[in-house]
Target: Prolyl oligopeptidase family serine peptidase
Amino acid sequence: MREVTPELIVDGAVPLHPAISPDGRHVAWTVTPMGRAREHPAGAIWVAATDGGTPPRRLTSGAAYDVLPRWAEDPGLLFFLSDRTRRGTAQLHRIRLDGGAAEALTAWESGISGFLPPAGGRLVAVVAADEPDVEDERRRAAEGDDAIVWGERPSRARLRLLDLATGELDLVAGLGDRHVAELAQRPDGGPLAVLARPSSGLDPVADGSELWLVDLETGKATRLGRTAPEASSPVWWRADDGWHLGYLAQTPPGPVGGRAVFDLIVGEAGEHRNLTLGVGEADEHRNLTLGMDVCPTALAQVAEGPPLALFAEGLDSAMYRLDPREGRFRRMSPVAGWAGALTASRTGEAVAALVSTSYEPVNVHAGPLAGPLARLSDTRPELREVRWGVRERLSYRARDGLGLDGLVILPAGKGREDGPFPLGTLVPGGPYARHADQFTLGAIPSGQWLATAGFAVFLPNPRGGEGHGHAFASAVAGAVGQDEWADIVSGIDLLVADGVADPDRLGIGGWSHGGFMAAWAVGQTGRFKAALMGAGISDWGMLVATGEAGVLEAGLGGSCGWEGPGPHPHDRVSPISYASRVRTPVLILHGEDDTNVPVGQAVYFHRALRRFGVEHEFVVYPREGHVIRERGHQLDVLRRTRAWFARWLGPTGSG
Model:
């Protein structure tokens, strides 16, 4: 059997961006290394027959960053982005499946960030930032003027139309100064739906996402109004009452309650009849997933029918199709484990997605909508040479009787009869995330990474996460660390009672919201012998003030610091308020350039632990954001976290 090393994990490949051809016969996708070893990432485009009749083949070399394949109406032609001309600056390319070199279609100085192949006609919708003002940059450099003025010279991506016949790239001026986030063309070749925002990032004070229509022939832009918070994935479909636009978004006021699918009716001329929601103009967008006990995770437009969707169902996933007459999603087929990035053929009868199951890493799967889906890619065959820890599904009750699920991974080569074991509890992020029954091996500390070192691993799904409907997800609104913490403790108690976990060798950790829960845990109890706070929150009020989501985080913490002199509700749910109680050794890891949870959150907790003499390590990774991407840093995270738990939880043999 093969040994699991940090290098084995981070030197593997990851599939991304599956796209099924309009006729449903082929699937294209991107393959990239898990860890970025050089300044610029690399990626290659692969393609395979949907029925698996021919083996996958690499369409581009992977020497540059070739990503985001999308099909033309001609099923033999593929568009994609690549920085092969100048590393770090992507341009639009196209290539034929039957051979030949890729053709560059743009040479835009600022690069291309998104595109949509033409649905008939010759125009490609392209998303690109304005080209730099070279003279102004030279003047500023000469004067030493590098002042950053809020709202001045913002970085925004704009919609442009590329004429394939002439190569001209013309700006769609009607959208004004808005940042273009996503596009979806009406399947009959009609107007383009544009999801636009005030700036390239989330607005930290008020979400200003809007939907617009753009006539590709005239360039005329028509505003449809505001969306629900954090909107994404616009899709079209036709019903008896006309054309509809749907999208994924957080249920207002966000980010609590999880995602839903919203809908508005769009007339032929761009007028719209809104149907009830809760924030300004989006008040009247209909929630198509209201009352469901599952959660939407992805939408896929279908040219000749209603859209498809992926839903999280407990520890598994499922494909659904919208019933336009009922305005409800109907379950079509189950997908074991985790699924994402759904893509559909012209009729919707053939689909492809990324799928991971208990012992199989993420790969591209395809097949009929009625299922089952078959694996097309095989990006990590070397992992079949490893003996992994046995995964078991858990179903149990919270203290208040709420039904919960989760997973436990036993140490590799061990059974329950060999316990009790040192237990590492890894809390999911979000909080609107979950542990699906998927293969867990990654650069962020993962279940199998600890299981192959002799630890049992508990993967809890406390309330606040996806997979059980809106009420389950919204239960943490303004009350993070309360009932969700009790849910985690109930699962640990179950594993101790069952003889799986050694009560004297318990550890806890996680990343993002999981890092918050680890910091919270050590301020509430002394049961844990070690903790990992990865990119975690220590102060919810400070996160509202400095994090990229801004006031949206107040939905979790319960308040903002500018709401009077306090005390504030968010103080009661912030780990920093309980730092004087901490006695557990804590490993703090954080990316220096994290804008989601800024590194100041880690600095604050670090200083508090120093003040109270708590054993801890504080590690900051330069150039990293909320996710650690550089190979060297990923290796360090894996080595450091396993060594930390081994140090404090003791020997990892049986009993």
In short: Confidence is low (pLDDT under 50) at residues 274-280.
